[in-house]
Amino acid sequence: MQHRVIVLGAGYTGAIAVGRLARRLRREDVAITLVNAEPDFVERVRMHQLAVGQELPPRPLAALFAGTGVTLRLARVTAVDADRRTVTVTGEQGTAEDLPYDTLVYALGSGWHDQGVPGVAEHAHDLANRPGALRLRARLAELAAGASVVVVGGGLTGLEAATELAEARPDLNVALAVRGDLGERFSPKGRRHLRAVCDRLAITVHEHTDVTAVAADHVTTADGTTLPSAATVWTAGFAVHPIARATTLDTGENGQIVVDRSMRSVSHPQVYVIGDAALAMGPGDKPLRMSCASGVPGAWQAADAIAARLSGGKVPVTPVRYYQQCVSLGRRDGLIQFVTADDRAVDHALTGRLAARYKEAVCKAAAWGVAHPLLVPSRARGVVQAAGAADTRFAGTVV
């Protein structure tokens, strides 16, 4: 009987894990099913480009995984029963079905987080997924010259959104509201460059500004100031999919699923968690941040651990560490901030056009890795044991 592996979510981490598993395990021994709500792989790191009107090449999942033996199931995940080892999905016809699994890879990721701020859900736009980016795109197309747009959030997503928008639509008045200093996570060189770019693109930066309410035509800050906004872009954090908290899986305070060094759930060894949904500890005993920089190595780790446990091999454990933070600042500028293993900025940073090319190369490399799953160098191995049934070397251990 084939070992049933179900992967939930086809973002970067889920898609990479599926391709790696298909390469590492023999088809006659495993049945790999990928469940995703959309038929295409979406480059989430490019949603700010899509929002300003740029076209992204379609990447159908069926084409990406043709010839791999992976079964694609277009459906929405509505529940996970980790005790019964089933996943409930709802297909395009609205019919619910329970899918049993032997090994589950949970890669449902995260969505935007309104932080409980009044009016965000009703009036703000997000860049957490393709539908959100397309809604913002349609709204921006309606705006006449001179209209005001406020981007809320000074993280990487907010910086990319504000600069991309200001470059693509110089006729709009673009403002960026950040809680602390502009670019406070960067080195002095990085902060200087970021400020220079905002000045060049005529972006009004409101530092130490906490947005407390969003209306259809303005936002309100903690000190009572009203900022006009015909379109508000909310990038102030991400929240993991609520399904995780509704399960019996061990989760942290923010709903992320607690995993060990091999990305396996500490409470349910048949479940592996990758991407934004995983609560994994990195260098300096700090939780890994929600990012591709954390998620992609985690996907490699999980796939390799599953393959090793199923085939009776030694489980490889490679600690995830950071090297850089990559930010596009429009199409012709960028910032590559080099960091320590635990994600603290160092003095060295790359800026300007070279940084823009660097960031573009990183994005293309990530997409290439998804599109070429069969090029992972490995010999397919047969299944000799059930994952999690006998190997407990890492159970309950969190790095």
CATH superfamily heading of the largest domain: FAD/NAD(P)-binding domain
| Residues in helices, as a percent range | 25-40%
The CATH architecture of the largest domain would be 3-Layer(bba) Sandwich
Roughly what fraction of the amino acids lie in strands? Answer: 25-35%
Task: Report on the architecture of this protein.
With 399 residues, the protein is an alpha/beta fold. It folds into two domains: 3-111 and 238-319, FAD/NAD(P)-binding domain (3-Layer(bba) Sandwich), CATH 3.50.50.60; 116-234, FAD/NAD(P)-binding domain, CATH 3.50.50. Helices cover 26% and strands 26% of the residues. The protein has nine helices and 24 strands. The chain has helices at 12-24, 47-51, 61-64, 120-123, 130-142, 156-168, 188-200, 292-311, 353-371; strands at 3-8, 30-36, 71-81, 86-91, 96-100, 103-106, 110-112, 124-125, 148-152, 173-177, 204-206, 211-214, 218-221, 226-228, 231-234, 238-240, 257-258, 271-273, 278-279, 281-282, 286-287, 324-328, 334-339, 345-351. A seven-stranded mixed beta sheet has the order 5-4-3-2-1-6-18, covered by helices on one side. It has a five-stranded parallel beta sheet with strand order 8-15-9-10-11. Strand 23 and strand 24 (345-351) form a beta hairpin. Helix 1 packs across helix 9. Residues 387-399 have low confidence and may be disordered.
Short description:
By secondary structure, the protein is α/β, with parallel strands linked by helices.
